[in-house]
Amino acid sequence: MPRRIIKRIARLIHARRHKWYLRVFGERLTDSHLWSMNRHSITMAFGVGLAVSFIPLPMHLPLVVLVALWRRLNIAIAVVGTYFVNPFTMVPIYYGAYRVGAWLLRYRPRRFEFHLTWNWLEHGLGPAWKPFLLGCLVCGIAAGVIGRYVLEYAWRAAAIRRYRTRHLRRRDYKPDA
What we know:
This protein is mostly helical. It has one domain. Helix content is 66%, strand content 0%. It has seven helices and no strands. It is flat. The mean pLDDT is 81.
């Protein structure tokens, strides 16, 4: 199922590569590595997507597309990896990143209330920005590396299981003679 969706997206991009909004990328966007379904491209793209998702600014998608273009990773999987941090998971993940940063800097975590106002951004976020950004950096790198290698292990385990199942079926197959 995911393979068909990614192939459909690749055909759509290839057909529209001369449109004004895709012309910026030139022929780079139709590179076969950006849409391939091999293990290295998929696992690295997922790790990069997870790492980029911890950036606290709303620039995940352009950044992950640029990194995927630069490193020639699967764009669709990298974009999917960025949705790890979404409006439902944002508060606990960013709070955890703040706590990690405060622990690393040996700050005592402060209790603060969030208010979506300019006054809060000026005065409420002031003492918390250093541990918050450090925690986002550390958690992003850790999540990217762990996500990549967990997916790598799962991919290898599934391949080994398919090989063993196929091997057992061949061994147990008895043609009608």
